[in-house]
Structure formats: C-alpha cells, structure tokens
Specification:
The chain has six helices and eight strands; from the N terminus they run H-H-H-E-E-H-E-H-E-E-E-E-H-E. With 215 residues, the protein is of the alpha/beta class.
Length: 215
Amino acid sequence: MIQKTDLNKPIAGDEAQIMLGLLHALEANSAVTQRSIAGELGIALGLANAYLKRCVRKGLVKVQQVPSNRYAYYLTPKGFTEKSRLTANYLSISFNFFRGARDQCMALLDYSQAQGWRSIALAGASDLSEIAALCAQAHVVDVVGVVDDQINCATFAGLPVVRRLKDVGAVSAFMVCDLRNPQGVFDILVESFPRDRVLAPSLLRISRTRPVLAG
C-alpha cells in the first residue's frame, strides 16, 4: 500500500534532516564509515557519500587519513555551528508539526464522532498515526489498527498492524496518516471505500478529486 522510497533521492523536506543526522553521527564517532552512516540514516551509500562531500566542501567537516587506509571525519567549528542551527530548526518544525497534526486529528475525530462512526483505521505508520492514536483516547471513536505493508512489526503506537485493507475488518472510516506518499494512499483507499469516509489531515495536501484531463 505504501510505495517504497528511492533511497538515492531525498524526499522534499528531508535534506536538512539528513544533514543533521550526518553531522550528529560524525560528532559521535569520527571513525564512522560511510556505510554505517547510510544504514543509520536509511539512505543509499552513494547519497551518504554525496552529502559527506558537500559537508567537506562547505567547510563543515574535515577529513584526515588514519592508519589502515581509513579516514576520520571531524566537525569543524563551522560544522558545530551548523549542527546547532539545524537542531534548533528541527525542534521548531517538530513542535509546529505536532501542534498542527494534533489539532487536525482532533477535528477529524470530532467529525467522526458527530457522524456516529465508532471505528476507524489508520492508513500508514508514521509520526502522524502516533498522534492520531493519542488523540483518539479523548474520543469514543475506536482506532482499530494501522494498515501498512512496509513495516515489519505486529504493532505500532499500541495498535495492531495489518498489511492489507481487507485484513483490518469492518470499519466506519479510514484516516490517511502516511507521510511518504499520502496522495497515493488516498487514491488506493477510495478505490474500495467511500470517498467521504476516507479522512485526511489538511497538512497532507491531498487532492480529494481527480484532475480532469483535457481532450
């Protein structure tokens, strides 16, 4: 249901997070390898190499050869300053995201409750689905589970995870919580579920109508 991301291309908005993760990894361990950085950040090795080279060009990281033909990477004073700036921005964005997501999830759950819908499922395992599950505790609407075929775990945010829509059982509505491909997830859901019962926080920027192609 959720399409895999091309690890050779960062998703829009993820570049600052990759840079922050890279600088944090280098500060924690100067002997870290590019392969371990790629694994920690969940990106391709080539992309990790490209970001590391960018950091060196910008004067954020200094490279020094060490025995056994290996390299050590050190943050420069400029690198420490940039890491602090990125950290502050990340925390600000995270707080604003949480506050907006919480308000929008609460509004959708209020709407579901007013419609008499008693059970919903979340489409996509993400920070947004964790917020939705938390908000549901203040409502009589029961969140029965998460549908996501890209994670290998039995539960997420305290909810059971299923891989297929049909495995979630009978529900009154779905709430799109996928952050990687929300429009694609919405389009899949409305193929087999009433469009007016597929809910989505406005922050996902989902178009609820298909574009009309000319000619």
